[in-house]
Automatic annotation (TrEMBL), chain A:
SUPFAM superfamilies reported for this sequence: Ferritin-like
Protein name stated in the entry: 1,2-phenylacetyl-CoA epoxidase, subunit C
GO biological process, alphabetically ordered: phenylacetate catabolic process
One Pfam family per UniProt: PaaA_PaaC
CC annotations in GO: cytosol
Automatic annotation (TrEMBL), chain B:
UniProt protein name: 1,2-phenylacetyl-CoA epoxidase, subunit A
GO MF term set: phenylacetyl-CoA 1,2-epoxidase activity
GO cellular component terms attached to this protein's record: cytosol
GO biological process: phenylacetate catabolic process
InterPro entries attached to this UniProt entry: Aromatic_CoA_ox/epox (IPR052703), Ferritin-like (IPR012347), Ferritin-like_SF (IPR009078), PaaA (IPR011881), PaaA_PaaC (IPR007814)
Pfam families per record: PaaA_PaaC
Enzyme Commission number: 1.14.13.149
Species annotation: Paracoccus haematequi
Keyword presence, Oxidoreductase: yes
Top-rank taxon, per record: Bacteria
Keyword Oxidoreductase: yes
Keywords: Oxidoreductase
């Protein structure tokens, strides 16, 4: 190969490390939880990261300030990295030869298991930040609990992701506070964002048979068990932001079982275009 | 080059210089770095602001053509690498705006000049990215051309600019390698992928050559900038170096450089090649490139739509410091 400059960059090293970590898991037998339910759980974790990462990455170059461009790209990068780990493990446990890319690029919308919240359109920057905050506050509790998972592979991924997500939450909470308690307009926009997103938060804490099986096997907490901590975080941040906590009303659900909003189909049409148009090509 | 057609101020003979100006030029000739607090001719300061500002604008507008493919990247790893790359470009913009600020101009003033069209960014970012192979071609050729220009600028006379260039160059080689790696994959892939790669080279070859700016004989501002070591090489020198480096890389890929007159010239130890169409270059600079309206429009929209966000943060900061003051007052 002809000479290209060969200065090392931290980014590339980190990415290479990530790729290694992705393929590097030993074949530990999955816990008694039952493989299909374990795969289902891992897809829920991975799909949340993938779809939110996609949404966040849409801001690249279009955000309100250069610092935000950088922070959002970093956040998207973290989420895509976490998605590679969760979906990589999902494919491994499933044992049908599908890797993280096959799961990301070759499933149709009905096979996606992400929460509806993360697939909602970005809206204005306030909606994006509020969605991030509401999800981060849930995500961090989930990852903290997963650090003591009976499955060491799950615990390992959670430990890595928790550090990143702690930072995501610190950032999103801080911005919600500052914008809630900023100008009249920023306050109004943040309150409107909250109203729009609130009906999509309940789904995070609904338990179903998959969750129950994971909890019984000690793999993952029941989502409902995370709600008290989430409530506390959200109430304290909104209070400091001078934003009113919405009344607990109707909540949408379906994402965890593959019944999505109309938005997901368009995300996949874009995301999967090359893999679908050129089947089998290597990129 | 990310700074093209930068208008240079001054250009005096030694006889015309004041003693201060002579002492300044002597420092530059001794390769001393000029630091923000030190005396500098007004022309030096203004030229640097134009050049660093244009360079910074190029980094941030440069997020857009590649950002265009992040959501469509064909694998998760490619997506992560592209995100990391685009994030780097935003970071480069930040270092450069900071370097420009040391010269007494604010980032907001520079952005205002970009948005009003008073300041330019590199012509290259006004070309569309139409296929995934363009992510390869941009990294390989555009970052490749940028490196060609930025490596010597690490030795530029202005301290903050030189230090920004050193940080930036560390990251640029990763950008070029990831682009070339995409090209290698495409060229080793299906016939359709290889055709995409060739098409990308066809579209980006001449625009990449234009990045170095017009030929030296038409470059009116080069001499003063070179005397000040703001510009380290002539446009033609860098373009020649770029062609000489890139042609073997294209051959290795099995791609054809879209120039029938490209030929190795044993005598000069470099390739003879066709000049780009300079009328196209000037049209793009004047705002008539295929994507000028979209690129600038996207930046202006991001800025305007984000006004409430920036105002909100400012208002909060003011409230917070007012509260802190009141609390201190109450404690006294
Ligand atoms: Fe990170
Ligand atoms: Fe750059
Ligand atoms: Fe670059």
């Amino acid at each position: 190969m002809p000479s290209l400059p060969d200065m090392t960059t931290p980014n590339l090293d980190a990415l290479a490390g990530q790729a290694l970590a992705q393929g590097g898991h030993a074949q530990v037998p999955a816990p008694d939880a039952g493989q299909p339910q374990f795969v289902e759980f891992l897809q829920r974790m991975g799909d949340n990261c993938l779809i939110l990462g996609h949404r966040v990455s849409e801001w690249c170059g279009h955000s309100p300030a250069l610092e935000e461009d950088i922070a959002l790209a970093n956040q998207a990068l973290d989420l895509i990295g976490q998605c590679q780990l969760w979906l990589g493990l999902a494919g491994e446990v499933e044992g049908r030869g599908r890797d993280a890319d096959a799961l990301a690029y070759l499933r149709d919308a009905g096979a996606f298991r992400n929460l509806l919240l993360v697939e909602l359109p970005n809206g204005d920057f306030g909606v994006t930040l509020m969605r991030q905050f509401l999800f981060d506050a849930f995500h961090i509790e989930m990852l903290r609990a997963l650090r003591t998972s009976a499955d060491p592979r799950v615990a390992e991924i959670a430990a890595k992701a928790e550090k990143e997500v702690a930072y995501h939450l610190e950032r999103s909470a801080d911005l919600v506070i500052r914008l809630g308690d900023g100008t009249d307009e920023s306050h109004r926009r943040m309150q409107a964002a909250l109203a729009k997103l609130w009906p999509y938060t309940g789904e995070m804490f609904l338990d179903d048979a998959v969750d129950q099986a994971m909890a019984d096997a000690g793999v993952a907490p029941l989502p409902s068990a995370l709600k008290a901590a989430w409530d506390r975080t959200v109430a304290s941040v909104l209070d400091e932001a001078t934003l009113a906590l919405p009344a607990d009303g109707w909540h949408h659900k379906g994402g965890k079982n593959g019944i999505h909003t109309e938005h997901l189909g368009y995300i996949l049409a874009q995301m999967q275009f090359l893999q679908r148009a050129y089947p089998g090509a290597k990129w | 080059m990310y700074a093209q057609l930068v208008k240079s101020e001054g250009s005096k003979t030694r006889e015309e210089m004041t003693p201060e100006e002579i002492a300044f030029q002597d420092r530059i000739d001794r390769n001393e770095k000029i630091e923000p607090k030190e005396w500098m001719p007004e022309g030096y300061r203004k030229t640097l602001i134009r050049q660093i500002g244009q360079h910074a604008h190029s980094e941030i507008v440069g997020q857009l053509p590649e950002g265009n493919w992040i959501t469509r990247a064909p694998t998760l790893e490619r997506k992560a690498i592209l995100l990391a790359k685009v994030q780097d470009e935003a970071g480069h913009g930040l270092y450069l705006y900071c370097a420009a600020e040391t010269l007494g101009v604010s980032r907001d003033e520079l952005l205002e000049a970009l948005h009003s069209g008073k300041m330019k960014y590199s012509s290259i970012f006004n070309y569309p990215t139409l296929t995934w192979a363009d992510m390869g071609a941009v990294g390989w050729l555009v970052d490749g051309a940028a490196i060609m220009n930025q490596v010597p600028l690490q030795r530029t006379s202005y301290g903050p600019y030189s230090r920004a260039m050193i940080r930036i160059c560390k990251e640029e080689s990763f950008h070029q390698r990831q682009g070339y790696d995409i090209m290698m994959k495409m060229c080793a892939g299906t016939p359709e992928q290889k055709a995409m790669a060739q098409d990308a080279l066809n579209r980006f070859w001449y625009p990449a050559l234009m990045m170095f700016g017009p030929s030296d004989k038409d470059s009116v501002h080069s001499a003063q900038s070179m005397a000040w070591k703001i510009k380290m090489n002539t446009n033609d020198e860098l373009r020649q170096k770029f062609v000489d480096q890139t042609v073997p890389q294209a051959e290795y890929l099995g791609l054809t450089v879209p120039d029938p007159d490209l030929k190795w010239n044993e005598e000069k130890g470099g390739y003879d090649f066709s000049e780009p169409d300079w009328s196209e270059f000037f049209a793009v600079i004047a705002g008539n490139g295929p994507c000028n309206a979209e690129r600038l429009g996207a930046r202006v929209k991001a800025w305007e739509d984000g006004a409430w966000f920036r105002d909100g943060l400012m208002a909060h900061a003011a409230k917070a410091s007012e509260r802190a003051r009141a609390a201190r007052h109450a404690a006294e």
